[in-house]
């Protein structure tokens, strides 16, 4: 006998009246037991009531899978009240993962052919909600027939079901192509809106449909013109805008049809200008229509004047009080800044004002757009504005702002002095947030500006005396004082205020950096090397420097201790060579790959004490190793062996013949990735002493107009290999051929098996997050044999 159960309304009241979750679960479990018993032994005529209660329980998040078969029974019932609840249950409880959903295919097919509008509507709604690919293929013919049904109610639902079918099974596009042209003449709002959506889906998925529907562009233009001028009906107007949903959908379809097609674009230019000038933007509905108009103008081959109008509309959006509209405008202008730079440039003051928006997302978008607007003509003014923003911007934006200023200064600096001053101000305000390569870039810039050596060392000394907490600033200052300390003491710079500095003050400042708890190990390495270099540039006694160096001979940091021990050895055993070893660094020209080769050659040909600073801390500590002075990084080629002193070697040397055994042929480089200006090249080196070891240098370069940020390269090899990934030189690949990002992969191949490599690249480019996974199977044979 079936136990008494609650009505749906009573069940809802009791669940809402539960004071605790445990009490709610108790009520639901008790009622679910009643529902199961009713399904098994109850009155079939009341089964729909039990299923309605079960659907409410399902909406609360509780399991209701035992009602799936009851849905099938109710759908097959001849009563409309049963079908209505059964189809609702099927939409909620069934999906493609349930095999039971295929059992209702015949029931849906029978209901579609019944001729009862209400039942046909239920079947179409269910099919468009949970229809699988198999169901779509089986029922496509029935839906096609219903597209020409007399009832607008059925046609509307049939069109929406066809949209679902196209998304599930794109090859069904040919089935619905002939019907769409007839439906464009429809006057019913729902049918016309659904038809435009169906045509949009067809054009996005089928080139043949795209070519076919370009012929109906004049008809679409006429429909939209009628909407703009006379209106569709007052029933579908929102805030004085005539049927904005239909306008937006037509504009999206026109955008697809006019893309890369001159004739279609030309036929819609006048209409787009009319919509852009006549639409009221005081309400959100008008702003939505206007925004779609702007996107359409931008995507098609529109006239130049129309594109300027679109940019001006986005500029007006920046003055809107709605934050969402301002965000949309900033995002759209960021897309247009490359193609319509001069038009976007007119709205630069408004964009700069958006930097101080309290909303973090708006401020970030404004920062990205402001950095994209910097060029050689406005670099001074824009940099000043951005530096003002850097002083007070949130911490999560400080790194992006500082890096953007440094990149803009590097690309558009009018003079070297202005460039140096700009970097110094950024390091002073946000030194801990700058890019990894900021220290290397500034030291290279100062080293190449010989006329600014005295000016730079005085500016850096003054900045260091005021603040030693900004680690990149301290590293650059220590490097500069070590290189040009003699110019600091001369006091002959006319470009700065008179500054009298004593030797003891300079040494005391560097000792303060060494003793500070804020100094990183790499920073202490710079300071210790600077002290060592000052031993050849100061005129006084070097005993104080000797004492400081000897103290750090027992430092807990292994790198710093090794450096100090090597310096002590240089003082004790090789004091006659100290002045030559500690000479100033030579001028290094920056540029493309040719300049990089010259830098490598200069490293091999000259015996330097301190290589140029590098961005990451682990690599900086490696460069502090005095024993590795004559060796570059692990991927650099080794210097040639000395000439054999034997007579045969002398004769060979006099005849300019090779004085050493021929080195193995170099392994050719390999380009493995290229997309939107970003390239990844692999170069290979096999150390002669370890034939099973392969060193791969992955070099990422960027020839596009936008920086590639958050760049990460990950690699995987088969289990028979051993892979070690070293730290990359940075995570930002500057635009237009800036300083590349490099990363070394050490692969041990004991069996000399054919090498396969799987790479995953993740980065942000033009505001989009990109992830690429690919295999490299065409590695040179020399890399593993």
Automatic annotation (TrEMBL):
Pfam families, A to Z: Adaptin_N, Alpha_adaptinC2
Report any one BP term from Gene Ontology: intracellular protein transport
Question: Which residues belong to any copy of the GAE domain?
Answer: 665-780
* Family annotation (InterPro entries): Adaptor_Complx_Large_Subunit, AP1_complex_gsu, ARM-like, ARM-type_fold, Clathrin/coatomer_adapt-like_N, Clathrin_a/b/g-adaptin_app_Ig, Clathrin_app_Ig-like_sf, GAE_dom
- Coarsely, its chief localization is membrane
Q: Where is this region: Disordered?
A: 589-616, 629-650
UniProt entry keywords in alphabetical sequence: Cytoplasmic vesicle, Golgi apparatus, Membrane, Protein transport, Transport
Query: Where, per UniProt, does this protein localize?
Result: Cytoplasmic vesicle membrane; Endomembrane system; Golgi apparatus
Task: Indicate, by first and last residue, each region the UniProt record lists as having compositional bias (Pro residues).
Answer: 636-645
Question: In what way does this protein cross or attach to the membrane?
Answer: Peripheral membrane protein
CC per GO annotation: AP-1 adaptor complex
Q: What protein family is recorded?
A: Belongs to the adaptor complexes large subunit family.
Q: What PANTHER family does the annotation carry?
A: ADAPTIN, ALPHA/GAMMA/EPSILON
Q: Protein name, please?
A: AP-1 complex subunit gamma
């Amino acid at each position: 006998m079936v136990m008494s159960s609650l009505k749906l309304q009573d069940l809802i009241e009791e669940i809402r009246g539960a004071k605790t979750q445990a009490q709610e679960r108790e009520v639901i479990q008790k009622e679910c037991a009643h529902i199961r018993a009713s399904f098994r032994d109850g009155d079939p005529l009341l089964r729909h009531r039990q299923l309605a209660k079960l659907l409410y329980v399902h909406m609360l998040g509780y399991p209701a899978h035992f009602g799936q078969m009851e849905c099938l029974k109710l759908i097959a019932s001849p009563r409309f009240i049963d079908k209505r609840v059964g189809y609702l249950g099927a939409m909620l409880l069934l999906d493609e993962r349930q095999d039971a959903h295929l059992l209702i295919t015949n029931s849906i097919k029978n209901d579609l052919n019944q001729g009862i509008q209400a039942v046909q509507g239920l079947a179409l709604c269910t099919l468009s909600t949970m229809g699988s690919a198999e169901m779509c293929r089986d029922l496509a013919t029935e839906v096609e027939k219903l597209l020409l049904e007399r009832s607008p109610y059925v046609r509307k639902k049939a069109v929406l079901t066809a949209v679902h079918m196209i998304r599930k099974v794109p090859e069904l596009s040919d089935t619905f192509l002939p019907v769409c042209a007839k439906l464009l003449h429809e006057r019913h709002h729902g049918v016309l809106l659904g038809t435009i959506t169906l045509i949009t889906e067809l054009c996005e998925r089928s080139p043949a449909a795209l070519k076919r529907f370009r012929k109906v562009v004049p008809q679409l233009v006429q429909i939209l013109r009628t909407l703009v001028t006379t209106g569709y009906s007052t029933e579908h107007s929102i805030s004085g805008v005539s049927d904005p949903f239909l306008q937006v959908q037509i504009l999206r379809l026109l955008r697809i049809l006019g893309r890369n097609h001159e004739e279609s674009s030309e036929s819609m230019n006048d209409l787009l200008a009319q919509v852009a000038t006549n639409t009221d933007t005081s309400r959100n509905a008008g702003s939505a229509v206007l925004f779609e108009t702007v996107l359409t103008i931008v995507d098609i081959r529109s006239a130049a004047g129309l594109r300027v109008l679109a940019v001006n509309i986005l500029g007006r959006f920046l003055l809107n009080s709605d934050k969402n509209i301002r965000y949309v405008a900033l995002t759209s202008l960021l897309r247009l800044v490359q193609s319509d730079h001069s038009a976007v440039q007119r709205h630069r003051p408004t964009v700069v004002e958006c930097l101080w928006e309290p909303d973090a997302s708006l401020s970030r978008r404004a920062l990205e757009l402001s950095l994209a607007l910097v060029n050689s003509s406005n670099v001074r003014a824009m940099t000043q504005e951005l530096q003002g923003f850097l002083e007070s911007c949130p911490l999560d934006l400080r790194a992006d702002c500082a890096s953007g200023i440094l990149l803009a200064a590097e690309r558009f600096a009018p003079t070297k002095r202005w460039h140096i001053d700009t970097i110094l101000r950024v390091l002073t305000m946000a030194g801990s947030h700058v890019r990894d390569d900021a220290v290397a870039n500034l030291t290279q810039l100062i080293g190449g500006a010989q006329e600014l050596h005295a000016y730079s060392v005085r500016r850096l000394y003054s900045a260091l005396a005021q603040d030693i907490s900004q680690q990149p600033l301290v590293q650059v200052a220590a490097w500069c004082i070590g290189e040009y300390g003699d110019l600091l003491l001369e006091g002959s710079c006319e470009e700065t205020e008179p500054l009298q500095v004593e030797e003891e003050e300079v040494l005391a400042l560097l000792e303060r950096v060494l003793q500070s708890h804020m100094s990183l190990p790499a920073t202490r390495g710079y300071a210790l090397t600077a002290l060592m270099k000052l031993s050849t540039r100061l005129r006084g006694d070097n005993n104080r420097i000797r004492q400081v160096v000897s103290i750090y001979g027992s430092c807990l940091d292994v790198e710093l201790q090794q450096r100090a021990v090597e310096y002590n050895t240089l003082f004790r055993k090789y004091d006659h060579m100290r002045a030559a070893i500690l000479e100033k660094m030579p001028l290094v020209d920056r540029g493309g790959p040719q300049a990089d080769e010259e830098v490598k050659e200069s490293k091999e040909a000259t015996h330097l004490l301190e290589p140029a600073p590098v961005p990451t801390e682990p690599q900086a500590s490696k460069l502090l190793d005095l024993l590795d002075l004559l060796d570059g990084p692990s991927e650099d080629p080794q210097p040639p062996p000395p000439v054999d002193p034997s007579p045969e070697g002398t004769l060979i040397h006099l005849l300019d013949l090779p004085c050493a055994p021929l080195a193995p042929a170099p392994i050719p480089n390999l380009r493995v990735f290229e997309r939107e200006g970003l390239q990844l090249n692999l170069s290979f080196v096999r150390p002669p002493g370890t034939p099973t070891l392969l060193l791969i240098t992955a070099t990422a370069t960027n020839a596009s107009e936008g920086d590639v940020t958050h760049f990460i390269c990950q690699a995987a090899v088969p289990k028979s290999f051993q892979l070690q990934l070293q730290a990359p030189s940075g995570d930002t690949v500057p635009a237009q051929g800036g300083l590349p990002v490099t990363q070394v992969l050490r692969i041990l191949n004991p069996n000399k098996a054919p090498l396969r490599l799987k790479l995953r690249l993740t980065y942000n480019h033009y505001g989009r997050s990109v992830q690429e996974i690919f295999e490299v199977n065409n590695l040179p044979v020399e890399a593993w044999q």
